[in-house]
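Task: sequence design from structure.
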């Protein structure tokens, strides 16, 4: 990365002073002058005037570097970028053009003036090729008012490993659903049978019968918890990219709040906890209605699980021009400072004993974090031990920027797919 910065910095300087003729050096004192410029004995490389050490540094990098001018024509491309297939055939024979993704990124950088980074998979080779897609991390930076430098790092292997992990979790979770469901049914049948035997007993039931009932209750509890774990693993796998994200649509916050209160009514009533809402009506967020409802439900259920009986859980909504913030505050046990930064990790639970008693899986807050991230928002928490916790879910109140186009078939420059 240091070499990339040095090389791109050198390129920016060349683009600014391109066309200027260097002053003539007095005879004889060039080689002896301290701190002189790079040796000018080498001939300029290409039309962009890049020469010497800067050009060699770019050519030696494993990351691809492409510089586009104001018309999105590539004025500099290093060998790594060509190998990644970031060029395609131009409109006229013998000409080349930048990949549409690069042109889109460059246009966004010029329009907003903000550096852009995106990670995606590009089809490799011509249409119909069976090769795995090329995973790229693209970073676009403006060099001046017209030129944009785009750095491309090959992350194909990390994408492949992530897909393998997601597929493994999804497949295993799917296969576990059937035996876990059967185990729950058997546990319920055993509970019903022991309940009848206890009711029909003429005298005090035997210790064996009471022990069998306790074991059946425990089996039913643990199988239900395992069923929730499998369902949440499948949900988390979907959120992490195993399935494409739904197209963002306007979602009425009033509907989300009503749905959340309805879903959590039974759990809250069992502990005599009151779930109350305050906030403006008619607020809208952009995203997936089911995912937004799931995120807020998980926050409310988490608040109920870690609150005492006869307490209150408050849901508060604040609406801004760009964001809608939903607060879920409880009067529970709170979170220790050293646990606050980790509670959104998968399977991390601040209070292990309390989580076992409540049947928690350690995935609810991780799901909330992924939903918030997928919607371009975030989730934060403020808490202190003994004073309860407040979780804030921040979601966009405006339509997101149009996604980058992914062409299905790309005419790549001859030889560009070879590595």
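Answer:
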């Amino acid at each position: 990365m240091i070499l990339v910065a040095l090389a791109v910095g050198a390129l920016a300087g060349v683009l600014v002073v391109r066309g200027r003729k260097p002053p003539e050096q007095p005879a004889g004192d060039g080689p002896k002058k301290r701190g002189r410029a790079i040796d000018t004995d080498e001939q300029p490389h290409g039309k962009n005037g890049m020469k010497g050490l800067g050009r060699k540094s770019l050519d030696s990098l494993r990351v691809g570097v492409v510089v586009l001018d104001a018309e999105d024509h590539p004025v500099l491309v290093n060998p790594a970028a060509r190998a990644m297939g970031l060029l395609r055939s131009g409109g006229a024979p013998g000409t080349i053009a930048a990949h549409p993704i690069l042109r889109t990124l460059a246009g966004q950088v010029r329009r907003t003036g903000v550096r852009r980074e995106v990670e995606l998979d590009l089809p490799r080779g011509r249409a119909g090729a069976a090769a795995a897609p090329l995973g790229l991390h693209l970073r676009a930076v403006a060099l001046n008012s017209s030129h944009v430098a785009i750095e491309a790092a090959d992350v194909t292997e990390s994408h492949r490993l992530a897909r393998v992990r997601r597929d493994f979790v999804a497949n295993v979770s799917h296969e576990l659903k059937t035996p876990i469901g059967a185990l729950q049914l058997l546990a319920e049948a055993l509970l019903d049978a022991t309940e009848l035997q206890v009711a029909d007993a003429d005298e005090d039931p035997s210790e064996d019968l009471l022990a069998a009932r306790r074991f059946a209750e425990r089996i039913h509890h643990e199988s239900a918890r395992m069923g929730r774990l499998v369902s949440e693993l499948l949900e988390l796998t979907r959120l992490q990219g195993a399935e494409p994200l739904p197209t963002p649509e306007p979602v009425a916050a009033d509907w989300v709040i009503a749905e959340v209160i309805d879903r959590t009514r039974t759990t809250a009533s069992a502990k005599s906890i009151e779930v109350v809402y305050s906030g403006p009506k008619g607020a809208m967020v952009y995203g997936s209605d089911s995912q937004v409802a799931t995120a807020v439900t998980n926050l409310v259920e988490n608040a109920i699980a870690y609150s005492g009986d006869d307490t209150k859980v408050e849901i508060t909504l604040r609406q801004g021009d760009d964001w809608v913030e939903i607060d879920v505050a409880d009067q529970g046990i709170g979170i220790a400072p050293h646990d606050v930064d980790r509670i959104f990790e998968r399977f991390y639970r601040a209070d292990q004993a309390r989580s076992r008693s409540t049947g928690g899986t350690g995935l609810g807050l991780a799901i909330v974090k992924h939903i918030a991230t997928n919607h371009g928002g975030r989730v934060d928490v403020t808490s202190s031990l003994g004073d309860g916790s407040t979780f804030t879910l921040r979601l966009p109140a405006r339509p997101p920027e149009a996604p980058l186009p992914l062409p299905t078939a790309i005419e790549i420059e001859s030889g560009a797919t070879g590595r």
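Residues 14-48, 402-419 have pLDDT under 50 and may be disordered.
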